[in-house]
Amino acid sequence: MQSRRLGKSAIHVSDICMGTMTFGSQTDEAEAFRVLDRCFDEGINFYDTAEGYPVPPDTKWVGRTEEIVGRWLKTKPRDAIILATKVSGPSHVWFKSPCRSGMTALDRKNIFQAIDDSLTRLQTDYVDLYQTHWPDHDAPYDEMMDALDELVRAGKVRILGCSNETSWGLMKSIAASERLGVARYHTIQNNFSLNNRRFEDELKQVCRQEGVSLIPYSPLAGGVLSGKYQGGATPEGARFSRYLKMEGRQAVMGRRFVNDKSLAATERYLKIAEEAGLHPVTMATAWSKQHDFVASTIVGVSAHDQVDPILAAKDLVLSDEVMSALHQVSRDILYPMG
Question: Which superfamily does 3-224+285-318 belong to?
Answer without folding.
Answer: NADP-dependent oxidoreductase domain (3.20.20.100)
